[in-house]
Design goal:
This protein is mainly beta and 196 residues long. The protein contains 1 helix and 19 strands. The chain has one helix at 2-12; strands at residues 20-23, 40-41, 53-56, 61-64, 72-78, 83-86, 91-100, 103-106, 110-118, 123-126, 130-138, 141-144, 148-151, 155-157, 160-163, 168-171, 175-177, 180-182, 187-190. Strands 1, 2, 3, 5, 7, 9, 11, 13, 14, 16, 17 and 19 form a 12-stranded mixed β-sheet that branches. The longest helix is centred in the first third of the chain and has 11 residues, at 2-12.
Length: 196
């Protein structure tokens, strides 16, 4: 009887399952809106929420014009020619990874993640917003315009880092780069104690 009660307690205390939410505007929702539940497949008939895995497939464009109710998803994967754009004042966080094979535009919003991975062919652009990450691997293109990027951990870049205006990149960890760097009129600050 004790074993049955223990098993019932363990099943009853299980946290809610996270979903793997794939953007699909074929659901009848507003064309590219992140916050429209009908735009998402396999997402428990809702927009992505805390702990969910978000996939933006190739050939789709998603706009986040308002901060979602639960903006701390587990991870975001932008595939192929897929695009995610954050508008003014919008905040999104991924507690695990943001993987960009397509395009991620931060336009006056802000994004935060533990690990940012920009694949070859992928583009991460900070227009006037802000982005923060613990670690970053850039094999694609990181564009910093008038926005701010903060990297608190290690950064590895074999891709392109381009400043096209007066943005800021604050680096606190170890930086390894064999890629291309275009300074423009921006600021690069090495603030950590690690090797640069």
């Amino acid at each position: 009887a004790l074993l049955v009660m223990f098993a019932f307690f363990m099943l009853g205390s299980k946290p809610a399952s996270a979903f793997t939410c794939t953007f699909s505007s074929n659901g009848g929702g507003t064309a590219s809106d992140w916050n429209t539940a009908a735009n998402w497949a396999n997402c428990n008939t809702a927009a992505p929420s805390a702990g969910d895995i978000v996939i933006i497939p190739t050939a789709t464009s998603v706009t986040m014009a308002a901060t979602p109710t639960a903006s701390a998803v587990s991870s975001i994967e932008i595939q192929g020619t897929g695009t995610l754009t954050l508008s003014s004042g919008v905040y999104v966080a991924a507690t695990s990874t943001v993987a960009v094979a397509g395009t991620f535009n931060v336009n006056a919003g802000s994004a935060s993640t533990t690990a940012l991975y920009i694949a070859s062919g992928g583009t991460f652009t900070i227009t006037t917003g802000a982005a923060s990450t613990t670690s970053m691997t850039n094999n694609g293109t990181l564009n910093i315009m008038t926005g701010v990027v903060t990297s608190t951990g290690s950064v590895s870049s074999t891709g392109v880092v381009a400043f096209s205006s007066n943005g800021l990149w604050a680096l606190f960890g170890n930086v390894t780069s064999t890629g291309t760097f275009t300074a423009g009129t921006s600021t690069l600050r090495f603030l950590g104690a690690d090797n640069q």
